[in-house]
From TrEMBL:
It is found in: Secreted; Bacterial flagellum. This is Flagellar hook-associated protein 2. It comes from the Bacteria. Gene3D superfamilies: 3.30.70.2120. Pfam families: Flagellin_IN (PF07196), FliD_C (PF07195), FliD_N (PF02465). Residues 12-107 form the Flagellar hook-associated protein 2 N-terminal domain. The keyword Iron does not apply. Residues 229-488 form the Flagellar hook-associated protein 2 C-terminal domain. Keywords: Bacterial flagellum, Cell projection, Cilium, Coiled coil, Flagellum, Secreted. It comes from Paenibacillus qinlingensis. Belongs to the FliD family.
Length: 498
């Protein structure tokens, strides 16, 4: 459907389009404020969600301190790694193991025999003859090279069970059985005369061989032999180079004795606690940056027509200031940090808690003052000493669980990590209630509701402005028509009285 006819100053000579645009600027002022407010609210929502993601990452990185298992990890060490090294495979039940390796296992051996030749790999042999490997005949032509002969032997290996290899350095050919163990053998047959350029001789190498006439070297085949080790005085046979016992894999390297010790992995515990402190300091630093960020009240979100008059760099700089300070002194974030400080500084009470180890400061972890926003500091020597000498108390300080339904009592009787986990969850919920989450399509948050209301009001204002603009155009068009009629009448009168 065509729109109404607009007459733009054809009769009056007025710049109607500019006049109406200027009139509409004043009419658009409330809409522009709503558009700027919507952009600010969207930026604020996104910044809340960014803070929420920081909390989610912190929770994931530190929640392991709630679990006693992470304070009970064991480190395994051998007093002599040259004899035995150890890898944990299950759950060992003993704290130490006396190990005496009395004999190493030997693997099964293949049969092999080596001959020295007078040829390199590419020189033609120059004579024709045949020999056998096992039951297969190998026919040699005068034009064959050593490489050709090796290829012919190996082409029959699936039948003979024997492969051949040539070493250029000492001009040798070696026959090796593919199988290992006492059943393996290599049999070479044929009438080898004085002109035997391959240097071969007839014979068999098997488990009973003690010699092979004409061969440079040979290896009789042998079955694998088990090794023997005593663990805590009990004999055990093993094959290969390892033995699994009581949740441990003993890697047996040489004959000798050693002791394998199981002890608490103090380094792992220390690193977990230090990692938690580092992650916490990173979290509160980023949150405090948002809480203290400067706010520039003169920098409002840019409207589309304002962006058209600026380049990308100018827009980027402007919007950086427009977004700054949106969460300055935010009550949710500042309240979360206050709660975190309380979690970390209040004593842990209740049965099972040693009063000498009921605060973080007693194991070497202190908090900076309010000027440092509660940053954690670690006395590494003191913390390591506490872990080494009072590991159970350190574990209880972090992991103590309270099932009390009274919130105040539950807080007092819960370990530091348990408290912090609960408080981080509360803060995540508060931020999600305020700003929603990008993980969910439906946004039922406070800001989500406000943005939906703004969208409704913006649509309503746009419709109102369209009607207002149409009204201006109708009035100016009516004026143009009236002036046109007046001009026509004036011209007619002039003609009549002319």
């Amino acid at each position: 459907m065509a729109g109404p006819i607009r007459m733009g100053g054809l009769v009056s000579g007025l710049d109607t389009d500019t006049i109406i645009k200027n009139l509409m600027k004043a009419e658009k002022a409330p809409l522009n404020k709503m558009l700027q407010l919507k952009q600010s609210e969207e930026w604020k929502r996104d910044q809340y969600r960014e803070m929420n993601n920081l909390l989610l990452d912190f929770r994931k990185a530190s929640e392991g301190l709630r679990l006693q298992a992470n304070f009970q990890k064991k480190a395994i060490s051998s007093d002599n790694d040259g004899v035995v090294s150890v890898t944990q495979k299950g759950t060992p039940t003993l704290s130490s193991y006396d190990v005496n390796v009395t004999g190493l296992a030997t693997p099964a051996k293949a049969a092999s025999v080596k001959f020295t030749t007078s040829l390199d790999s590419t020189t033609p042999i120059g004579e024709t003859f045949s020999f056998t490997v096992g039951s297969k005949s190998i026919d040699v032509a005068a034009t064959d090279t050593m490489s050709n002969v090796i290829s012919k032997i190996n082409a029959q290996s699936s039948t003979t069970g024997v492969t051949a290899s040539y070493v250029q350095g000492d001009k040798s050919i070696t026959f090796t059985s593919k199988a290992t163990g006492s059943a393996a053998s290599v049999t070479i047959g044929g009438a080898f005369g004085a002109s035997n350029k391959l240097g071969l001789s007839a014979g068999t190498v098997d488990k009973n061989s003690t010699a092979f006439a004409g061969a440079t070297a040979f290896q009789a085949s042998k079955d694998a032999l088990p090794g023997n080790v005593k663990i805590n005085g009990i004999d055990y046979a093993f094959t290969g180079s390892s033995l699994t016992f009581d949740g441990l894999e003993f890697n047996l390297k040489s004959v000798g004795s050693t002791r394998v010790n199981m002890k608490t992995d103090e380094d792992a515990i220390f690193n977990s606690i230090k990692g938690f402190a580092d992650k916490y300091n990173e979290l509160i630093s980023k949150v405090n940056t948002k809480l203290t960020e400067s706010k520039y009240n003169d920098y409002k979100p840019l409207l589309d027509e304002e962006k058209e008059a600026m380049n990308e760099t100018q827009i980027e700089k402007w919007e950086a200031k427009a977004q700054s300070g949106l969460l300055r002194r935010d009550s949710i974030l500042s309240g979360a940090l206050t709660d975190f400080r309380k979690v970390l500084t209040d004593r842990v009470e209740g049965s099972g808690i040693d009063p000498k180890f009921d605060t973080l400061s007693e194991i070497g972890i202190t908090t900076g003052g309010y000027q440092e926003n509660g940053k954690l500091y670690i006395d590494e020597d003191k913390l390591r000493q506490a872990i080494s000498q009072n590991g159970t108390q350190v574990m209880d300080l972090f992991t103590k669980y309270s099932a009390d339904t009274d919130r105040t009592k539950n807080f007092k009787e819960s370990g530091i990590a348990q408290r912090l986990y609960a408080q981080v969850n509360n803060s995540i919920k508060d931020l999600t209630d305020k700003a929603g989450s990008s993980a969910y399509l439906s946004d039922k948050s406070v800001l989500g509701k406000e943005l939906r209301e703004l969208d409704t009001n913006i649509r309503s204002w746009k419709e109102r402005l369209e009607k207002k603009e149409d009204s201006y155009w109708r009035k100016f068009t009516a004026m143009e028509k009236a002036m046109s009629q007046a001009n026509s009448q004036s011209s007619w009168l002039s003609q009549q009285t002319g």
